[in-house]
Design goal:
Rossmann fold; N-(1-d-carboxylethyl)-l-norvaline Dehydrogenase, domain 2; three-stranded mixed β-sheet
Length: about 300
């Protein structure tokens, strides 16, 4: 390994906490902050220093990694943290923030002389915990050595999409990938709901498509969570998927593309959240096929 870094992780939810642990296991000094401190406290057992404020968390940082709910949250937190950072510090922005937000965040980085990397990740709880995420990254070649040890600690592979983080090429790719993930998840829920309504054993469907081009490991994994009532703890929560779905729909609209499936998927996820499934795995969008009073 290269010389250990001091990495500040702002946001220690499902993904941020796992990334912080893997950074600590790789030998880096980790300073962590979360809006709800109780969610960050367990990281102390892994050697991380848990801070009370974003500004305190980034003191002495070589790299700052943000993994928060959305772009607005990142902007708010980094406005508190950035004044405490030295010019030239690398900022790895891994929140799925949307195209418009990336522009705002990169402007903030420029105001404080930070080197901005647009670096969302593909993967959910299990690959995050195993350090097997796919990192999608855009940022200047001359500064990539500063963040490569961070990407190596949290991911199995890094795909570089461009030189300019402000252009949001990595975020654009992430939205495209998530559009497929969300569509596949919603389709899985609807298949199971229709099977239930028609009195079809889901296993009969799985047997019919087994080994063919319609079969998919992801379908079976998400269906298993629904059929076996294993929707908690979430790998990727309904509420977060609903936020991402809205970003996807908006990105399409702004670029002249009508995304009917994505729009319906966003509404479906929002409905599931309103029914009380927001903190469950995104597969719980299954319940959106039923009225609240219906036994799903």
């Amino acid at each position: 390994m290269t010389d250990p870094l001091t990495v500040s992780v702002l946001g220690t939810g499902i993904m941020g906490a796992a990334m912080a642990r893997n950074l600590a296991r790789a030998g880096h000094t980790v300073r962590a902050w979360n809006r709800t401190r109780d969610k960050a406290e367990p990281l102390a057992a892994d050697g991380a220093v848990v801070a009370d404020t974003p500004a305190e968390a980034v003191q002495g940082a070589d790299v700052v990694l943000t993994m928060l709910y959305d772009g607005a949250a990142v902007l708010e937190v980094m406005r508190q943290a950035a004044p405490a950072l030295s010019p030239g510090t690398a900022w790895v922005q891994s929140t799925t923030a949307g195209i418009d937000a990336i522009g705002e965040l990169s402007e903030l980085a420029g105001e404080h002389g930070l080197v901005f990397f647009d670096a969302p990740v593909l993967g959910t709880k299990q690959p995050a915990e195993a350090g097997q995420l796919l990192v999608l990254a855009a940022g200047p070649s001359k500064s990539r050595d500063a963040v490569t040890p961070v990407f190596d600690a949290v991911g199995a592979r890094t795909v570089w999409t461009g030189e300019d983080g402000a252009a949001g090429s990595a975020t654009r790719l992430k939205l495209v990938a998530n559009s497929w993930v969300i569509a596949a998840t919603n389709a899985t829920g609807e298949v199971l709901a229709l099977a239930k309504a028609l009195g079809v054993d889901p296993q009969g469907f799985f047997d019919a498509i087994a080994g063919g081009p319609l079969d998919m490991g992801y379908l079976r994994v998400k269906a298993g969570l629904i059929l076996n009532d294993q929707l908690t703890p979430a790998s990727f929560a309904v509420s977060t998927a609903a936020k991402d779905a809205r970003l996807i729909v908006e990105a399409g609209r702004q670029n002249g593309v009508r995304l009917d499936v994505a729009n319906a998927g966003a509404e479906r996820l929002a409905r599931a959240a309103a029914q009380g499934h927001g903190d469950e795995d995104m597969a719980a969008a299954y319940f959106a096929s039923f009225d609240e009073e219906t036994d799903a």
